[in-house]
Write a structure and sequence with these properties.
- The chain is built from three helices and no strands.
- It is mainly α.
- The termini are far apart.
- It is 68% helix and 0% strand.
- The longest helix is centred in the N-terminal third of the chain and has 43 residues, at 9-51.
């Protein structure tokens, strides 16, 4: 027994349009829910770490002292670096005619 179903293009397009509309409406609410959830989580993190930090004053000062970088200026190393920069400037300004031909093409 062969049953042939006659479906025209308009019916198929109408069905697909209705299905798409339902998915878009549901996905919009899902995205709104996820955005509210993410915003709430960010608010919780802000409250926990910024508004009400759990470190005491002594622990904060200990952290500051531990992470404080003390920079010491070494005049000898600084002068050596400046001298190297000046030497390289001098090499850059030399004439190319004074450089020997390593391939002996001339």
């Amino acid at each position: 027994m062969d049953i042939k179903i006659k479906v025209n293009k308009k019916q198929i397009l109408d069905f697909l349009w209705q299905a798409k509309s339902g998915v878009v409406k549901r996905s919009k609410w899902i995205l709104i829910f996820l955005a509210v959830l993410a915003l709430g989580y960010c608010g919780y993190l802000w409250y926990k770490f910024v508004a009400r930090p759990s470190w005491s004053t002594e622990k904060r000062q200990e952290y500051v002292n531990a992470t404080e970088n003390k920079v010491r200026f070494d005049q000898k190393k600084f002068d050596a670096v400046i001298a190297e920069i000046e030497r390289r400037k001098g090499e850059y300004n030399t004439k190319l005619e004074n450089i020997p031909d390593i391939f002996r093409l001339k």
